[in-house]
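Let us work through a complete example step by step.
Step 1: write down the sequence.
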Amino acid sequence: MITARKQKEYPRHIAERIIATQMRMVPEDGELYENAIRNVYAAFDIAEQFTGRIIVRSLVTFGFAEASACLDIPTAPVLEVVAVRYYDADDNLATLDPADYELIASEDCTYLDIYRSLALSTTRTRNRLLVEAWCGYDDYRDVVLRVPEHADGIVLPGSIEAAVQLTAGTLCEADGDAIIGRSVNSLPLTAERLLRPYRMSPYGAND
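Step 2: predict the structure and record it as tokens.
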């Protein structure tokens, strides 16, 4: 399903807040501080693996074998569709006019309504329709207002942030041995319970 993922933007402000409040570190701590940042980023990756959803804001290209009037994108949230491209009947890559589709998105599910019938390539069997989109949760700076940094952004849920904090703390305390190299089932029990309501089918599955 995912053919490419780039421009992965870890929420630096959230990581810094976790480190300041839980680990009592400041940037002046140098290498220890940077190692803590890496552990928080690793905790975000682990949360993604466990939930099967894109959490860290990224530019993602999804590939589909078929085009339907209501296209299900099995990852959440999708914040913005950048482009919809398809290989036409002559196997040429064409771009669909934004007026021909609409993103119907929420924190839990995402659909792309396509208003135009597309004749897709018969030469290809996979990735005949490509949807490029910004996905993931948004960063925020104010812990009270929790306003997303980007227009139409969806702020990282508190439960996911708490699970990341717990996992990052475990990584720091055990120098990474508790999680790295093991299954994501080795998550701290409380972190797993916090993440479980957000678990989806794997977003890397083939269509």
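Step 3: interpret the result. The beta strands are 2-9, 57-64, 70-72, 78-87, 93-95, 101-105, 110-114, 129-135.
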